[in-house]
Design a protein that fits this description.
Order of helices and strands: EHEHEHEHEHH
Low-confidence stretches: 146-154
Helix content: 40-55%
CATH class: Alpha Beta
Radius of gyration: 15 Å
Number of strands: 5
Number of domains: 1
Length: 154
């Protein structure tokens, strides 16, 4: 069985398109429910990748991304897609500092969302594998400190 992907997208069209492509490729797709607690609980070891989609990345969207990145496990790739493309370089830098692993524009049927997630998971595994045990320990500690309440500024 393939990995579990948490899909956070408020636009029904994109949510359905992405979900159908990921499920066709064998991924298990979890959608947030109306309760914010439920999607936050999914971040603690229950998902292998997170895909967040927006029309545009403004302050409110950055705050949601900040909530996700501070609660997600350190080894979970987080992909942000935006209809407004390209994303400003200053916004890109802020998102990467928060822990986002990839920022991409929304695309139609020409490119596979499953392929994007496949690549992200493979790259993340390679990064983790290349770390020494000390570096892995430090990364886990940093991640747990952020999760415990230390915040990264947007």
């Amino acid at each position: 069985m393939k990995a579990v992907v948490l899909l956070i997208d408020q636009e029904r069209f994109w949510q359905d398109l992405i979900m159908s492509q990921l499920q066709a490729a064998g991924y298990v797709v979890q959608l947030p429910t109306s309760s914010t607690v439920s999607w936050q609980d999914k971040l603690y070891g229950e998902c292998d990748a997170i895909l967040i989609g927006f029309r545009a990345i403004r302050h409110v969207e950055k705050e949601l991304i900040k909530q996700v990145t501070t609660r997600a496990s350190f080894d979970v790739p987080i992909v942000v897609s935006s209809t407004t493309w390209p994303v400003l370089p200053t916004t890109q830098r802020a998102l990467y500092r928060l822990g986002v692993t990839r920022i991409t524009g929304r695309f139609g049927l020409g490119r596979s969302w499953a392929q994007l997630i496949d690549n992200e998971l493979r790259e993340q595994r390679e990064k983790i594998k290349s770390l020494s045990s000390y570096e892995r320990f430090r990364l886990q500690q940093t991640s747990s400190h952020i999760t415990a309440g230390l915040h990264v500024s947007v």
